[in-house]
Amino acid sequence: MLWALAALAIPIAVHLFNFRRHKLVYFSNTALLKTIQQENAKTKKLKYLVVLGLRCLFIIGLVLAFAFPYKPDTAMDLNAEEGFVGIYIDNSMSMKAQSSKTTLLEDARKSAKDLVGQLAPSTRYLLLTNSFEVQNEYPMNQEEMLDQLDRMSLDGRPLRMNEVIDRFEMLRKRHGFDQANLFVYSDFQKNMLDLTQTQIDTALRIIVVPVQAELQSNLSIDTVWLSSPVIQPGLSNELHVAVTNHGEKAVKGLPINLSMDSKVTASATVDVEGKEQAELVMQFLLQESGSTRCAVSLMDYPITFDDVYDFVIETRPKLQVVELIGAGKTSYASMVFGEDPQYDFTLMDPNRIDLNALSKAQLIVVSEASTINETVRQSLFNDAAEGASVAVFHDDGRAVDTSTMSVHDVAVKHDFFGDMILDLPQHADLPKVKQHVPLAPTANATVLMNLDNGDPMLLETTVGKGRVYDFATTLDADWSNLADNSLFVPLMLKMAMLGGGVGKMSYTLGVDQTLVFNDLDLEGDGALELKNEDGSFVMMPAHEVRNNRMIVFLQDALPDAGFYELAIHDSVYHVMAWNESRIESEMDFADRETIAKAFKEAGFEATAVLDTNDFANHDLVQAMARQSSIWKWFVLLALIALAGEVAVLRFWK
Predict the structure, then answer these.
(1) What is the predicted pLDDT for the residue at 74?
(2) How far apart are CA 404 and CA 400, in angstroms?
(3) What's the CA gap between 112 and 104, in Å, rounded?
(4) HSE on the CB side for 286, CA within 13 Å?
């Protein structure tokens, strides 16, 4: 491009030769004209030289701008002997989006192969994907690298950029390379462009290659939940579905299907505005107990990984209820649960606790808090944290209030009473107490019932996955008439049902690594197995028993979303549903300027931002030079020279 500087001869030639035709004018006395010419000759010559200089400066600025200058110290030596080049290709689900020709993943794969074809044969490569596959993380030659690029599939979990860079730096140092270049291919979703806490090393140069989808729209099913946590055969329930429209355009009448055990049981439609979330409610009824494999689905293209949400509904044949009460004491809870076939009721002496049976209960009733020691209290706290309801009737206060009073206020608007009390009459027959323990509500406690003097009668405190219900009195007739009041039975049933919820309906790939089960016993030398539906994948996860609970650790990632079975001795104990993370559903991508700014702020001063076709259409060094912004200064110089010439010709008289 610098050969175009020969165009400087044009303004010089114009100034050396005056091609204008002169008109002959006869004048009687030329003495005056000679005086004027002598007085203005120097000024005229200076004006011509200034115009000549500005015109030459305009041509020079324009030519140098098109030559794409760049600083030599920012150039990356990619063809050095025994060079080390890392290529990271984002193979997460969002790369399934359509580009102008194929998919983003295919564009990245083709560009990476073009890059490998340009570099020196002695170059060693390392391929990084979101799966961190060990077979790709050793120095490969050109042929091996091309083969691994062809084998790469779309199955990785979403990664943040700092994870990728830290992983590559660890591998570079492990393999003993002093310098390295890392090419990063990704669609750069904004929530993935995280460079915080990244260890900056001057031995690493990064070349960023963004790939962008042709259409940035997507619909996703984000989550589901139940109106009532109690699922029992023959009882109707409602399923809430959250649907998000990640595009700008509104969607009307979107069909949503609910299937149970591979059979479609309900269908509905929903309207979702652009960049909004809508909630859909679907009713269902299960006739049998056990695990039901369910899925909510919609139709969307081309991003389909978030169109199906799998979950499991556990229908319990019976709920476990345990009451801790001393020998010879009257069990009021047994009057509610003892004869009901839907409940398995057990009386337990507070001094002879079966912690294993206690951990499996959905409701634990502590009739007299004073009989519970600190060890049992901690066990009850752990049971509540894992999802149980614990009802504690207090008789252990230091300053018992012996004033007779009634329940004054009931939080009928609270979810606890939402499906229990439709209307509370003005003069309702509410429980009366003869003595009570003043309870002090904590920051995360909710007062469900108050007494006449304002003291709490019933507190609800969320502990982990479960709830603790503190009563300011006991069920004994010397303390209150709560056991004889019409509120007593629905209170106890509701607490049992809330503790008998389905637990975790689904898990998220790459997020849930530790699973806790209350009713899983591993006896003898039986092997614990986790396998998918067709048995093509089987793993034996690490596990341990802690606080009478089985804790399972997933050290390896599961291959796909779907249903998995946890089995012991070929007997299935639990069915679990796994879904892809919805982090990638958001169609919000960083542009080139944002990407360059993020890397610069993180300390990567020499980061280049290129296009995927740079490696096919240009020499790599030329492509590196084209990403420099120095050319803008020369364009500015050319414009200033042009403006200066116009000003001189117009105003210099």
Answers:
(1) 47
(2) 12
(3) 12
(4) 23
DSSP H or E segment with residue 563: strand 562-568
Residue 401 carries which DSSP code? B
Give the 3-state secondary structure of residue 413.
coil
Q: Model confidence over 379-401: pLDDT tens digits?
A: 899 888 888 999 999 998 768 99
% of the chain with per-residue pLDDT over 70: 88
Q: How many CB atoms lie within 10 A of CB 71?
A: 10
**Which DSSP state fits 232?**
-
Residues of the chain with pLDDT under 70: 18-23, 27, 29-41, 70-82, 228-230, 232, 398, 418-419, 422, 500-503, 518-526, 547-549, 605-607, 616-629
Q: What is the structure's pLDDT at 120? A: 83
> 228 CB contacts (<8 Å, ≥6 apart)?
237, 238, 419, 497
Predicted local distance difference test score (pLDDT) of residue 454: 93
Gap between the Cα atoms of 610 and 182, Å rounded: 13
φ/ψ bin of 290: left (φ > 0), alpha (ψ from -120 to 50), beta (otherwise): left
The three-class DSSP label of residue 165 is helix
Three-class SS state of 450: strand
CB 104 within 8 A of CB 596: no
Domains and CATH numbers, the chain: 2-69+636-651 (no CATH), 76-215+589-629 (3.40.50.410), 219-312 (2.60.40.10), 319-499 (3.40.50.880), 507-579 (2.60.40)
Q: How far apart are CA 393 and CA 124, in angstroms?
A: 71
What interhelical angle do 31-66 and 631-651 show, nearest 10? 160
CB of 375 closer than 8 Å to CB of 419: no
In order of 226, 312, 417, 579, the CA distances from 505 in angstroms are 10, 5, 24, 11
| Bridge partner list, 267 | 257
Tell me what percent of the chain is helix, strand and coil, each rounded to the nearest 5.
30, 30, 40
Asked whether the beta carbons of 446 and 467 are under 8 A apart, the reply is: no
Q: Residue type for 432, please?
A: K
Q: Which H helix or E strand runs over 608?
A: strand 608-609
Task: Report d(CA 151, CA 90) in Å as an integer.
Answer: 14
Cβ proximity of 149 and 113 under 8 Å: yes
pTM summary value: 0.67
The three-state secondary structure class of 347 is strand
User: What tokens does 480 get?
Assistant: 């209150």
